[in-house]
Design a protein that fits this description.
heterodimer; A: 266 residues; alpha/beta; four-stranded antiparallel sheet; 9 helices; B: two-stranded antiparallel sheet; 69% helix
Chain lengths: 266, 309
C-alpha cells in the first residue's frame, strides 16, 4: 500500500531534520525538560519512549511550538523554532510566522482531535484550503487519495462520531499528510485505541515510514519501535537516559532505569 | 468464507410478546382533575371580570396593532443582530491575551449589565444633552435630528444585549475542547482561522439555546422602547387604549401577539439547533412535526410507547 511518497516534501538538505541543544521546559515551578540534546535525521523514524510524566510528549509539542521552550535551542530543518536570531539577539516570531513554520510539520494526537463538525473528507481538506489557499477541487482530489491510502476511501462522508477510534486516527493521519509535511510528529497515536484497533493505525504508520517520511513517534508500542524505528530514545524525568538503535536499547539496555522500565512494559 | 462460530438459526416463529397489565398511575388522574378544577376557577374569575372580551378579536388584526407588532418584530431582530455581532467581538476581546482589549471588554460588560436597560434607552434618547452636535467628519448634524426613536431603541436594546451575549459566546467558546485549537494550530492555521472555522461552529451548539432564550426575552423587553416613543406593540396598544379606554383589553391584544411571535421563534430556534447538531450525534432528534405525530399516536394508545428510543 505504498504511494504516500508524493505527499512528502523532501528535506532541503542532508542536515538534521530536528536538532535539540540543551532544551529545557518549565511550567511554573515544574521543571519538565532538563536539557535535551538530540538529532533526528531526514527519513528517520525516531521513537521516544519512557514512563508517563518523563517529558516526551512535552518535547514533541515543543517541536512545533505548541509549547515554548524555556532554554536551549531547537531547530527544524535548520530553522530555529518560534524565534529568529539576529546576531546574539532572539526575536519571538509573530503568530503568522509560527503558523507558517507549523505548516510543514504534521502532528497526530493521542485523542485524534478531529474536527467533529466536519466529515472525514472535510477534515482532510480544511488546512490545504484555508492555509495554503488551494482550490477545493485540488484539495478534494488529494483528500480522497489520502483517505484511500489509509483505507478509508469509502468513509469520506462520515462524521468523526460515526467512525471507530482506529478509523478516526487514520483520518487524523491523512489530515496531517494533506499539508505535505516534511516531518510528522506522533503523540502516543495508539494509546487511546482499543487493542484490536491498534494494528490498523500502526500499519499506516509503517507504510509512511517505508515511503521515507521523517517521523518522531512517542509510543508505548515497543514492537513497532523495534520493527520500524531507526533510532530510539528512552527518556525519564526530563532527560535522555539512553539512546541508540531500537534493537540494541530494547534488547540490551545499559542503564538500570531503562532496564526497570522495559521489564514493566515488555 | 468458513465461519466456525456457531450461529443460532433465526427463529422462524417470533417469541411470544409479554402481555402484562401496565402499572396503573392513579396519581395522574387525581393530578389532572386538580389541574382542570384550578383552570375552571381561574377561567370563571376572568370571565366574570369587568373586561370587554368582545372587542379583543377585532383589535388583534387592527392596523395600528399590526404596525406595532411589525415594529416589535424588526426592532427585536435588529437589536439582537447588533447584540450578537458585538457580543462575539466582546467575547473574543475578553479572552484575548491583549490586556487592553480584555479590560475594555470587561468594563463594557460590567457597565451594560449593571445598569437598567430602561435607563440606557432614556440615556440614548437624550444623548443630545451630552453631545449636542454629531460630527463624524464626513457627516455633521444636530444630535436631536440623528437620535430618532428607532436609533435610540436599537442602541439601547442592542448594546445592552451585547453584554449578555458576550458572556454566552464566551461560555460557548470555552466549552470547545482545547485539543481542537491545538489540532488547528498544528495544521498551520492562525488564531482567527481557528476561531472562525473550528471553534465557533462547535461553540454554536452551546450558544444557540441560550441565544434563543435571549431573543425571546428581547421580543418582550423591546416593549421598554415605548418610553422613547418607538411605536412598538405596547406603545400602539396604549395609544389605542387612551382613546378607547379599553386598557386591559389592549394589553391582552398585545399579549396575544407576543405569544404568537415567541411561539414562531421557538420553532425557528429548534431548526437552528438541529443545524448545529451536525456530527455531534449519530442520529438527529426528531423535528416537532415528527414529534407531534408520535405524540398523537401515543395519545391514541394512551400509554407510554413500548419501544425504547
Amino acid at each position: 500500500m505504498s504511494g504516500l511518497a508524493k505527499d512528502i516534501t523532501p528535506p532541503s538538505s542532508g542536515a538534521p531534520m530536528v536538532k535539540a541543544e540543551g532544551v529545557h521546559k518549565s511550567f511554573g515551578l515544574a521543571h519538565i525538560l532538563k536539557g535535551i540534546d538530540l538529532e533526528v535525521l531526514p527519513r528517520e523514524v525516531f521513537c521516544l519512549i519512557g514512563p508517563s510524566g518523563s517529558g516526551k510528549s512535552t518535547f514533541l509539542r515543543c517541536i512545533n511550538h505548541l509549547e515554548k521552550i524555556s532554554a536551549g535551542r531547537l531547530y527544524v530543518d535548520g530553522h530555529l523554532v518560534g524565534y529568529r536570531q539576529h546576531g546574539d539577539k532572539l526575536y519571538e516570531l509573530k503568530e503568522k510566522e509560527v503558523a507558517a513554520q507549523r505548516r510543514d510539520i504534521g502532528m497526530v494526537f493521542q485523542r485524534f482531535n478531529l474536527f467533529p463538525h466536519m466529515t472525514a473528507l472535510e477534515n482532510v481538506m480544511e488546512a490545504p484550503v484555508q492555509v495554503k489557499r488551494e482550490s477545493k477541487a485540488v484539495a478534494r482530489e488529494r483528500a480522497q487519495r489520502l483517505l484511500d491510502r489509509v483505507g478509508l476511501g469509502d468513509r469520506t462522508g462520515h462524521y468523526p462520531a460515526q467512525l471507530s477510534g482506529g478509523q478516526q486516527q487514520r483520518v487524523a493521519i491523512a489530515r496531517a499528510l494533506a499539508m505535505q509535511p516534511k516531518l510528522m510528529l506522533f503523540d502516543e497515536p495508539t494509546s487511546a485505541l482499543d487493542p484490536e484497533l491498534v494494528g490498523e493505525v500502526l500499519d499506516v504508520m509503517r507504510d509512511l515510514a517505508e515511503d521515507g517520511m521523517t517521523m518522531i513517534v512517542v509510543t508505548h508500542e515497543m514492537g513497532f519501535a523495534r520493527e520500524v524505528g531507526d533510532s530510539l530514545v528512552f527518556m525519564d524525568d526530563g532527560v535522555v537516559v539512553e539512546s541508540g538503535h531500537p534493537r540494541d536499547v530494547l534488547t540490551n539496555p545499559q542503564h538500570d532505569r531503562t532496564k526497570s522500565f522495559l521489564s514493566k512494559v515488555l | 468464507m468458513t465461519d466456525t462460530v456457531d450461529k443460532t438459526p433465526a427463529p422462524s416463529v417470533p417469541p411470544e410478546q409479554i402481555k402484562a397489565i401496565p402499572v396503573r398511575h392513579y396519581g395522574r388522574w387525581v393530578a389532572a382533575a386538580v389541574v382542570i378544577a384550578i383552570l375552571v376557577l381561574i377561567g370563571m374569575a376572568f370571565s366574570n371580570a369587568d373586561i370587554n372580551y368582545g372587542i379583543i378579536p377585532d383589535y388583534v388584526t387592527d392596523g395600528t396593532i399590526l404596525s406595532g407588532a411589525w415594529h416589535t418584530l424588526y426592532i427585536s431582530v435588529l437589536a439582537m443582530v447588533l447584540g450578537l455581532v458585538l457580543g462575539v467581538i466582546l467575547a473574543i476581546m475578553r479572552m484575548s491575551s491583549n490586556p487592553v482589549t480584555s479590560t475594555v471588554a470587561w468594563f463594557y460588560i460590567w457597565f451594560f449589565r449593571g445598569t437598567p436597560v430602561l435607563v440606557q434607552l432614556l440615556l440614548w434618547y437624550n444623548i443630545a444633552l451630552v453631545f449636542p452636535i454629531l460630527n463624524l467628519g464626513f457627516y455633521k448634524d444636530e444630535m436631536n435630528q440623528v437620535m430618532t426613536p428607532f436609533l435610540a431603541a436599537l442602541l439601547g436594546l442592542g448594546l445592552n444585549e451585547a453584554a449578555y451575549m458576550s458572556e454566552i459566546v464566551r461560555a460557548g467558546i470555552q466549552s470547545v475542547d482545547e485539543g481542537q485549537t491545538e489540532a488547528s494550530h498544528a495544521l498551520g492555521m492562525t488564531q482567527p482561522q481557528t476561531l472562525r472555522r473550528v471553534i465557533l461552529p462547535q461553540a454554536m451548539r452551546v450558544i444557540v439555546p441560550p441565544t434563543g432564550n435571549e431573543y425571546i426575552n428581547m421580543l418582550k423587553t423591546s416593549s421598554l422602547a415605548s418610553v422613547v416613543q418607538f411605536p412598538e406593540l405596547i406603545k400602539r396598544a396604549t395609544d389605542i387604549s387612551s382613546t378607547s379606554l379599553a386598557v386591559v383589553e389592549m394589553y391582552f391584544v398585545a399579549c396575544i401577539w407576543y405569544l404568537f411571535l415567541t411561539t414562531i421563534f421557538s420553532i425557528v430556534q429548534y431548526y437552528i439547533e438541529r443545524h448545529y447538531a451536525r456530527g455531534s450525534s449519530r442520529s438527529l432528534p426528531p423535528t416537532p412535526l415528527q414529534r407531534l405525530r408520535k405524540n398523537l399516536s401515543r395519545w391514541g394508545s394512551f400509554r407510554r410507547p413500548e419501544v425504547a428510543r
